[in-house]
Amino acid sequence: MTIKLARITKVNPREVWKHEALDFTQWLAKDENIAVLCEELELNLENIKPEAAAGRYNVDLVADDIDTKRKVIIENQLEPTDHKHLGQILTYASSYDASVIIWVVTDYTEEHRQAIDWFNRNISENISFFLVQIEVYKIGESDPAPKFNIICEPNNWGKTLKSSGSGDTVSATKLLQMEFWEGLKEYATARGSKVNFSHSPKPKNWFNVSIGSSKCHVTLTLNTQKPHIGCELFIMNDKALYSSLFQSKAEIEKAIGLELEWRESPDNKSSVIQVTLKGNPKDRQHWNNYFEWCTNTVEVFSKTFKRYISN
Q1: Which of 32, 55, 99, 201: disulfide with 70, CB 3.0–4.6 Å?
Q2: Using alpha carbons only, how large is the chain's radius of gyration in Å?
Q3: How confident is the model at residue 185 (pLDDT cuts 50, 70, 90)?
Q4: Where are the chain's structural domains?
């Protein structure tokens, strides 16, 4: 049997977006497109505002981090990194008191990569700087598809270790979160789970799992204050999708075998379909039981919701 395979070809981003501000920034500001970047960076953003004023200047995109309520700025550059844009980014960040800085470029110099790595190593753990490369590919005669590559990201693990030496209880919690997600990845891999646990664990109370859709993803959560573990389908900026799923609520819950909590925030663009397990994440003796529950629940969430969600 002859198998015919298509060729993957790289496309110049300028062939897709002719103008940086008028084309690329406006494209990235749309919910379905920013979701692709968010999934790569493991961020949940809302209130996306293009060309927002920063004093006498305009920053390409300003947003809010849903989980931490931190301010986020995104600067786009359809060309390699340069000193001018690096200076602009820091100016914009100070204007908005931003805690998350994202620089999207088509290419980068080693000097600028080193500068951002230095920034992430030495600046407060409350500030995170991402350098992201945007690439575009086609398979055969397909439509062009964007691909975001993380070049630099916050060294949260190193910062957490550094601050934990001072007896910081918040950092101790972050260490526990990091260890839990690392243990979960090892457990799921050893079990041969078909779910994509590819994201790198970070010291956060949530861990995102892709189910192959830009419209939503599965998020696992840890709560040490009201001790429980959660699994939720997180739908970003798509009320129509939530309504469609809600109409199939009975058959979805039957397929999953659990009664779910359905939350549509009227004042928030995001929606959540969730189930929780009572249990204290601090109790390491039960971690294997929690890993099993997380893996099983993510697998059944992924299998079930994929039937109702088109990419």
Answers
A1: 99
A2: 21
A3: very high
A4: 8-154, 159-305
